[in-house]
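To fix ideas, we quote verbatim a fold written out as tokens:
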Amino acid sequence: MSEGETLNITRLPFQPLPSVVPPDSYDAHRSKQTPLVIDNGSTNLRFGFATSSTPRTGLNVVAKYKERRTNKPLLLFGEGIEAESGAKAQAKTPWEGDVLLNFDALENALDYAFIHLGIDTPTVDHPVIMTERLSSPLHSRALTSELMFEQYAVPSLAYCVDSVMSFYHNNIPSPPIPFTSDGLVVSFNSASTSVIPLLNGKGIMSHAKRIPWGATQATEFLLKLVQLKYPTFPTRVTTAQTSWMLQNFCEFAIDYPALLRELKDPLKLRASERIVQFPFILPVIEEKTEEELARIAERKKEQGRKLQEIAAKSRMEKLVQKESDLQHLLSLRERREEESKKDWAATLQEEGFENDAALDGAIKKLESNLKRARKKEADGEDMEDEPPSFPLIDVPDADLDEDGLKEKKKQRLLRAGYEARERARKEKEREREEREAEERKEEEERDRDLAGWATKLRKEHDAIINKIKDRNRRKAALTDRKSAASQARMKSIANLAADERVPKKRRKNGGEDMFGADDADWQIYRKINTTAPSSDEEDDYANLQTVEQKLLAYDPTFTAEHTHASLSSQRSALMQAFRPEYAEGDVEGKTRIHLNVERWRVPEAWFQPSMAGVDSAGLGEVIQTVLARFTDTEKGRLVKNVFVTGGPSQIPNLLPRLNATLRPILPPEMPLDIVRAADPVLDAWRGMADFARTDELKRVGVTKAEYEEWGGERIKRWWGGNWNASVPI
């Protein structure tokens, strides 16, 4: 992949060091009972006094561990955990998904919040308004109330739903006008997405719905897709990194199926990708001088020459040995007619053969091996212009001394090699003559009927391609143990492993197992050995190349686009665009993640959770279900102000996608207006602060006396809080 194509490379940002923020001064709020506002989110904890314009924020995660150098126990909160590798394994959040469960972590988080607000009194003498999830479990609420009243002794505690307070902040009227806004709140949270209708400024919690899909699930889904796409990625991809990718590169598709059809074009897919460059370390390469390189090259050349000489000598010795073995087996087979049946059986047993079929099979196999070896030897060496002479061959051994006998043995080997090369040359000459005759015949046929000749070769071309496809399909099917091909392979293995391949009736009648007498019998081993190289496959590719060369040379309708290589590259062009391949030594390229289809696939899970394996209705279907419970007049008031909030609502194209989803399910004349919160992340806290500055907070908060009377599960029912276990005001 060239650098000119990688125009959308974004380097992974480094994790910044945590900043140390000193605690605020408590003097301005001492003994004044300024309301405390706590947005207890599953990702971030936002806290501050109601008179502040912006809250303090920290990651809602706690870690207790022992520092190795001093062996002292430490308690870290928020960003400080990322700076300590030993603390990451001990990190714990108060939330388990969308449920508040770990109250030790919640207590540590609240300690951190109160310390940084400068509260230095034994108790927290401030009214508190705090968020809880839609339809929060009573167990979570009871333990939170117990912690606030028993541990911190707060004078009053009120619970609210964060998305409703974000809606309140963006629609709050000027005093003294009461809050009576209508709207449909769509809240995108870390572990869920909820839909809450509001009429006359009151949340209709009985009609609210929630789906179990949020930013956390989307981040995990993107991480799984990246791991599936890059199973051998050299570095570990973390959840924090995929969360950053989700926030910066993903977006909603207005029409997801149409987008997928458009991205089937490799060029458009390549244009839509975003490339994330992970950190990498270039390998240190030791550079050599020209003299050293020349010396190494000469050494390699000399080693190659020696290896070639050794290989040639070894081939010649093997060829002579095979010639000798073949002559011995042929002379052995000639003795079959001369000896009696009993003596012949004893001779076969002595030579290591069970029967005549085994002997014939060995001779046939040896002849085939010799033919291939002679052909290879003839291709590798030029024949001599004059036949060499071997004068000592016909001299009797008695007339030769010791040196002469050695020379005679050497000449015998040389003559055997020369004769083998002569036979191979004649065989090659005969094959060349046959090939030339076939070419002349084919040329005459081509001159006589070009169209018919081209049609015939086209059919042969298609037949070879189909054969290659069938072989590839069979290889793919063998990877599935439940496929028919895999079952047939196991059956063949079982048959070969059976002790009795000859039926009992045939054994009684003197029948023999003739397996191996026919060359086709040995094909069974190719079927069961899926990793063995196939000579048929090599022959098919060679024949295919020959046919394509002829068609390209003589058939004007057959172009390079019709060749097997071109067709294969066209099919793989989409895969190459989906996940480009880099050269083996390209360390920088190997540490890149190409995001293309994933950019839209992950956000699409909010509207189709089944894509990610979640058995739930999508956001569009949930909104339709909520709207169906209202009259047309009320429905018109709701959809006139569809309000989206929460961190994931900042993903691009959410508003157009919601509009495309809701417009078809509404009457044409019904107005539809979708707006996003001015600050989807902090507006919930600001709405709580706005409400806390009103006198209504005293009316909706549960006092210490009411807590002791009702228990921690009871709350007061009001327009911004949950209804479960609530007491009407």
In short: Residues 451 and 565 are 24 Å apart (CA to CA). The first strand starts at residue 9 and ends at 11. The first helix runs from residue 80 to 83.
